[in-house]
Design brief:
The chain has 668 residues and is of the alpha/beta class. The protein has 24 helices and 15 strands. Helix content is 36%, strand content 10%.
Length: 668
């Protein structure tokens, strides 16, 4: 392993830091005299486009099968970063590649990786120590980028027996495990899922002879570097490592020194384009009001010559809202953000690539990895957080030599953020022009026809829309039901993921509310559940029947009120309130007269019911007298002995519960 004694000095994050390199070029350096962690500056001039137009991949030592496969895909001449990396990578040396986004870095490492591996039946297969185990590993920060890289590698390996497998989260484990068991040569994936499978023993990296780290600075920003280092520690020491990054922060340089062996640092830059952004992309910066942004965007989407368009938002909620707004205005739009299930995310990307929707409203999850042809416009609906995000967003257009247009909306609150981006990238646009949906310069600069309104005419609504694209069942993890998968698919679908797990337990989307709904007296669609259907004690049931029989004139509401009071008031309150409701409140006997002596007044009986004065005594001639003892003036006497306090508390709690909103339980 390389010496790492000077790693600490390189760990201070500096977005524009360049790794220390030797003064000599790669061809002049004697590598045997250099330490393992030395970084060699290639010091090779970027070839001019007219020179590369006369070259083919075969001129750089690429296998004929790969050259033929790329030629059928329309890729005949290498781009500058490819022409500079192919000779060094095919020679087996480690590489640190730096190039602007959209300049063809994928094939710069993809072609050497495909050429280095050996597929089943090819020469050298029988001599492998671990045939069928991954011979190359490509680590990328996002799922969309993983799919894009895997597609490019499969295209290059069309005429080879090498098998390419893409692994990322959001999909079921089982198909990925089965594919690994069948055998693969190249694995492309995101750090989290790769590490999970490796720790479970399904992914073996013991035979990985080549490792590629793509978009290393983005993996640093997302916090993936610890996972990447764990993966690198599982690979053989003599592997070839290729690291590609748009910028070289200190931690990325430190990782390169720790895990790479004398890497060659290659920087590809157009001699005629010394800016940080691609020269082919025209940039417009407008200071727009938040209430007018949708109107401005709707007019930009009707510009002449507009092809596919990506609209970037800073938050998931804004992306979903803007997509819905555009759909309501007649545009074929689709959202793409982290709250969507993986199936819905891939559905949106396929619909965008196939032209069924021509507007993709995305968060920064799509800022890297979206490589779609004919993307003519990129709109930053919200100002990017920093210059790196800005570069990667607008890098979705003007790719591979094509031209593009990038429009950025800057709100009043974001002027300081834009000022920082402008100074860092030296764009020369410190003060964005105040722009509204009716501003003449908006129509003139972006070639918007005069009179264009904020709604797409019905005659121009020719796209099929997102629903025309099939939603695949990916066996997504963490989902109980499939969910809609469209705009409302959610993160594994909120309806089908997190909440559905509670349905089987406490009975509703919200556990406490669902439980209360199940046991409450007014549950819809049926009678009171088990708690309300418990059989009462015999004496209480008979007392209820007796009370209902004597109060036949009051009936309905009074009977229901007595039952609620008896149930809620506690034992003392239940008896006091129920008897009070059963007998007239004035304390009269059955004949309508007042009690005339103290011997007619007695304390309430709490014995639970004896033969003399219990509930069965209602059949004897003295029943009115005993009823009079439970009610009437006895109520006033019971207040002095504590019975009245229990009764009052029972009535008070009952009244409070009836006046409170349904389902409101402060102590629950």
């Amino acid at each position: 392993m390389p010496d790492t004694t000077d790693v600490q000095s390189d760990t201070t994050p500096q977005p524009t830091e360049q790794p220390e390199a030797t003064e000599a070029t790669g061809e002049q350096v004697d590598r045997s005299t250099l330490p393992e962690d030395a970084i060699i500056d290639a010091d090779v001039e970027t070839p001019a486009p007219e020179v590369l137009a006369e070259k083919s991949f075969a001129d750089y030592g690429v296998q004929p099968e790969i050259v033929a496969a790329l030629d059928r895909a329309g890729i005949t001449h290498p781009f500058p970063i490819q022409a500079m990396t192919l000779p060094v990578a095919l020679a087996g040396h480690d590489i640190i590649g730096q190039a602007k986004t959209g300049t063809g870095k994928t094939l710069g490492f993809g072609v050497p990786v495909v050429q280095r591996v050996v597929g089943p039946g090819e020469p050298g297969w029988d001599g492998l120590d671990l045939p069928g185990k991954p011979q190359a590993l490509v680590v990328v920060p996002t799922r969309e980028l993983a799919v894009q890289v895997a597609r490019d590698l499969e295209r290059a390996a069309t005429d080879r027996a090498a098998r390419v497998l893409v692994i990322y989260g959001g999909r079921a484990f089982e198909p990925q495990v089965e594919a690994l068991q069948r055998g693969v040569e190249v694995v492309v994936g995101t750090p989290g899922r790769l590490l999970d499978l490796a720790q479970q023993g399904h992914l073996s990296l013991a035979a990985a002879r080549a490792v590629v780290l793509d978009e290393a600075d983005e993996m640093l920003d997302l916090g993936f570097l610890p996972d990447v280092e764990k993966l690198l520690s599982m690979t053989p020491a003599g592997r070839q490592t290729l690291l590609f990054s748009a910028t070289m922060p200190g931690p990325v340089v430190a990782m390169a020194r720790r895990y790479m062996s004398q890497p060659t640092h290659i920087r590809a830059a157009d001699p005629d384009d010394d800016g940080a952004t691609v020269k082919a992309t025209t940039q417009f910066i407008y200071r727009a009001h938040a209430m007018d942004k949708v109107e401005v965007l709707a007019r930009i989407l009707q510009a002449e010559g507009r092809g596919l368009t990506i609209v970037f938002a800073r938050t998931k909620r804004t992306a979903a809202k803007v997509a819905d707004e555009l759909i309501d205005r007649g545009f074929a739009a689709a959202p793409l953000h982290g709250d969507l299930g993986q199936g819905a995310r891939e559905q949106a990307l396929r619909a965008f690539r196939n032209g069924k929707v021509d507007v993709l409203v995305a968060t920064d999850v799509a800022a890297r990895g979206i490589d779609v042809t004919n993307v003519t416009h990129v709109v930053n609906y919200q100002c990017p957080e920093d210059e790196k995000t800005y570069l990667h967003r607008i890098g979705r257009t003007g790719r591979a030599g094509a031209t593009g247009t990038a429009v950025t909306f800057v709100d009043w609150d974001d002027l300081h953020r834009w000022g920082m981006i402008d100074r860092t990238l030296d764009l020369g646009i410190p003060e964005p022009v105040e722009t509204y949906s009716t501003s003449p310069h908006l129509f003139e600069e972006l070639s918007i026809p005069a009179g264009t309104k904020g709604r797409l005419p019905r005659s121009a609504q020719t796209r099929e829309g997102l629903d025309a694209e099939v939603l695949e069942d990916l066996g997504e993890t963490g989902r109980r039901d499939g969910g809609r998968g469209g705009r409302d698919g959610g993160r594994g679908s909120r309806d089908g993921g997190r909440d559905s797990g509670r349905d089987g337990g406490r009975g509703g989307r919200s556990g406490r509310d669902g439980e209360r709904a199940d046991r409450g007296p007014r549950a819809e669609g049926g009678e009171r559940p088990a708690r309300g259907e418990r059989s009462e004690r015999p004496e209480r049931a008979r007392r209820t029947e007796s009370a209902e029989g004597s109060d036949g004139a009051e009936g309905g509401e009074a009977g229901g009120e007595r039952q609620r009071r008896r149930r809620r008031g506690g034992r003392g309150g239940a008896e006091g309130v129920s008897t009070d409701g059963a007998a007239p409140a004035t304390g009269q006997d059955s004949a309508g007269g007042e009690p005339t002596s103290l011997d007619q007044i007695a304390l309430p009986d709490r014995s639970g019911g004896s033969a003399e004065n219990g509930p069965d005594a209602g059949d004897s001639p003295d029943a009115p007298r005993r009823r009079r003892r439970r009610g009437g003036r006895g109520r006033g006497r019971s207040q002095s002995t504590g019975e009245g306090s229990a009764e009052a508390s029972g009535e008070g709690s009952s009244a409070a519960e009836q006046s409170a909103p349904a389902g409101d339980t402060s102590g629950d």
